[in-house]
Design brief:
This protein is 47% helix and 16% strand. It has 14 helices and twelve strands. InterPro entries: DUF222, HNH_nuc.
Length: 360
């Protein structure tokens, strides 16, 4: 059996497993005792309760449940939507579910981001309220002793400052040119920052927000590089603080200004690419566009032009794989992208709009 046939067999086995997971949940929906289920399946009581919750969600989320039934998404992705919509009422959950028809094409991380965006749309006030409550009740720093004189220091924080901290640690570590491992550099930078090294802050929050949201005409969520969707109120609050690199877009997603400056070439082209493509163009890669390299879809040496239609972001790894020809990449005029693997499998992705289009 060749590698292509093996790959197809692996996919067929995965599809069969997903179909069986759905069938099992349909049967579990007829049960109501988590203790009985835990004993039957030899699983923890908490896991049994979660299976009952997933079973109950089959009728509440018919679109993603149907994708699971047809073997097009796995149980992990179904659980993402279940967990994120559990605080919504039935109508709101159904509205989010209806917007997830493309979930079969997304990774778990992409599905999380799109689900969060839809929740901000259908329940903006609730999204803000839940965020404020989570910051007040769940924020914490914990310490756990580990073997070999090590310790695990964990911080559960608001996502926006947490991302800023991580990006600053990464930026500092990238300036170190010695034989320490990457993990050592990050850990040492973290210690220096926390213990008062006095280094200046050099990173900023990359916030994309529509002009209409900024002035309060819509509740379209903003988007923060490396974090994902944030509710409109949070986006406006960050904008008001001023310590961020803001990108304003009009209702069709065209950039109209950065900070207090108008766009001017050549920076205009680079920023437009980052606004249009928030992450690396490779399927499933969530590396923020601001941390990517700008790539010509049709190579410059082959006659590819340097304009917004032919440019897009790739992280360093995927840019390298494309450049050496191991993976092939093409993009259509409407932005649809095709990523062809060495075994000949084609993965197609489509760009997402920055802002929701106005109703007709």
């Amino acid at each position: 059996m060749g590698k292509v046939e093996i790959a197809r067999a692996v996919l067929a086995a995965e599809v069969a497993k997903r179909v069986l997971d759905h069938a099992q949940l349909r049967l579990i929906a007829e049960l109501d005792d988590p203790h009985e289920l835990a004993l039957l399946l030899h699983i923890p009581l908490g896991a049994a309760r979660r299976k009952l919750e997933q079973a109950a969600a089959l009728d509440r989320l018919p679109v993603v449940a149907g994708l699971l039934r047809d073997g097009r998404i796995d149980l992990d992705r179904f659980e993402v939507v279940c967990k994120r919509t559990e605080n919504l009422d039935a109508g709101q959950a159904r509205a989010v579910d209806t917007g997830l028809t493309g979930a079969a094409e997304w990774t778990t991380q992409e599905l999380k981001s799109e689900t969060d965006r839809l929740i901000c749309l259908v329940d903006p006030a609730g999204a803000e309220r839940r965020h404020v409550r989570a910051v007040r009740k769940s924020s914490q720093v914990s310490y756990q002793s580990m073997p070999d004189g090590m310790a695990l220091l964990t911080a559960y924080l608001d996502a926006v400052p947490a991302r800023a901290i991580f990006d600053q640690i990464t930026a500092d570590a990238e300036t170190l040119d010695d034989d320490r491992t990457w993990g050592e550099k990050q850990a040492d930078v973290f210690l220096e920052r926390m213990l008062g090294s006095g280094r200046p802050v050099t990173v900023h929050t990359d916030l994309t927000i529509s002009a209409k949201t900024l002035i309060g005409l819509t509740e379209e969520p903003g988007h923060i590089s490396g974090v994902g969707p944030v509710d409109a109120a949070t986006a406006r609050e960050i904008a008001a603080q001023g310590d961020w690199r803001k990108v304003l877009v009009d209702e069709v997603g065209m950039p109209i200004g950065v900070g207090r400056q108008r766009y001017r070439p050549p920076e205009a082209l680079k920023e437009f690419v980052r606004v249009r493509d928030r992450v690396c163009q490779a399927p499933g890669c969530m590396r923020p566009a601001a941390q990517c390299e700008i790539d010509h879809a049709r190579g410059f040496a082959s006659g590819g032009v340097t304009d917004a239609c032919n440019l897009g972001p790739f992280c360093a790894l995927h840019h390298y794989l494309k450049t050496i020809g191991l993976y092939r990449f093409t993009r259509e005029l409407d932005g649809t992208r095709h990523w062809t693997t060495p075994l000949g499998f084609v993965h197609t992705t489509r760009p997402k709009p920055i802002a929701e289009p106005d109703p007709p």
